[in-house]
Amino acid sequence: MRRELQPKKLSVYFAETVTGDYNQDISFLLVGKKGQGKSYAQLSIAYHTAKAIAEIQGGTWSDYFGMENVAIVDPLRAVEVITNAQKNNVYIYDDIGVGWNARDFAKEDNKSKNDIFQINRVDNTVQMFSVPNQFLLDKVPRSLVSHYGEMDQQFFKFGFTTLKLFEPRTLFREGKQLQPYLFVNRQKFIKYVIPAPPDELRKEYDKERARITKLLIQQRKEMMTRKAEGGASSTGIGRNRYSAKEKVARALEYVNLGESVRSACFRAGCPESTFFRKRREVESELNNRPTPPRTHKPKMAVP
Predict the structure, then answer these.
(1) Strand locations in the chain, DSSP E?
(2) Which of 63, 43, 68, 44 is nearest to 53 (CA)?
(3) pLDDT of the residue at 112
(4) Spatial separation of the C-alpha atoms in residues 37 and 153, rounded to whole Å
(5) Domains identified in the chain and CATH numbers
(6) CA-CA distance, 99 to 20, in Å (whole number)?
(7) Which portions of the chain are predicted below pLDDT 50?
(8) Are the CB atoms for 14 and 127 separated by under 8 Å?
(9) How far is it, in rounded angstroms, from Cα 64 to Cα 50?
């Protein structure tokens, strides 16, 4: 009994919840201003939770968490992650207010993610979301999360930060939601100390964050340019103003930034068949050299 009353690590509490006998999951929303360390805090919690799950279920922490389980800002990546959830895995949706925005509540993409979020409890996963302000996130995941955290103090020089943790309670008859502190074994936990994540994991995250940020800034820049030119509209007329070669050129820019061909074509509004058909020609024009002639196999004479 004495052991049970000891303060429980947050990672161990999450791991024991999703691996227990009661078919539970964890959905954790972490809020903090830019620069307060919420991304690294999530990364650290995910790493230590995966280690705790591995101690219970067997294997290594990398069986339950890795950069393939992380969606940073990008809405397409968020869809890939949420639709490919694996049992007892840990997932991060970092700065997801861009990819799951409350202002886009009526869009089919948001509705689909909301539907999956409501029914994927059977996977017994740990899903963590971070936003600078909770009202940037769509209302469905925001109101249904099992735990809510706020970044508190930053001690970067000493390698840790602190956060306050709450366990939301909904008063359905009154339509209100309360956020009392977390109670475990009759003890109230107000603050948790979160150590910095491992250097190797942090470097992988920083690299992916830089790539996605560069990609999305370029995408938003093109959208604003089209709008300034009078080409962006809900009817899709703006995309049709661009020639096939221009669409292929934009898709190539995304491919060069590390996107897959499918994702690049989707962002550029370019059919994949057009991309593959005109890719060599566009690359040659961009490099100011003539298109290399296509070689054809000689036809065999029919005896």
Answers:
(1) 26-31, 70-72, 90-94, 126-131, 147-155, 160-166, 169-171, 176-178, 182-184, 187-189, 191-195
(2) 63
(3) 61
(4) 9
(5) 10-197 (3.40.50), 204-286 (no CATH)
(6) 31
(7) 1-5, 102-106, 231-239, 291-292, 294-303
(8) no
(9) 5
At residue 154, the pLDDT reads 94
Q: Which residue has the tokens 């306050």?
A: 164
Q: Structure tokens of 282?
A: 């566009």
Q: What would the pLDDT profile of 153-184 be if each residue is shown by its tens digit?
A: 999 999 999 999 998 887 766 667 777 877 77
Using CA atoms, how far residue 297 sits from 152, 176, 279, 292, 300, in Å, is 68, 72, 21, 16, 9
Find the angle CA(279)-CA(281)-CA(284) to the nearest 5 degrees: 105
84, two tokens: 């490919």
Q: Tens digit of pLDDT for each residue in 259-291? A: 788 888 887 888 888 888 888 888 888 776 554
Q: What is the pTM of this model?
A: 0.69
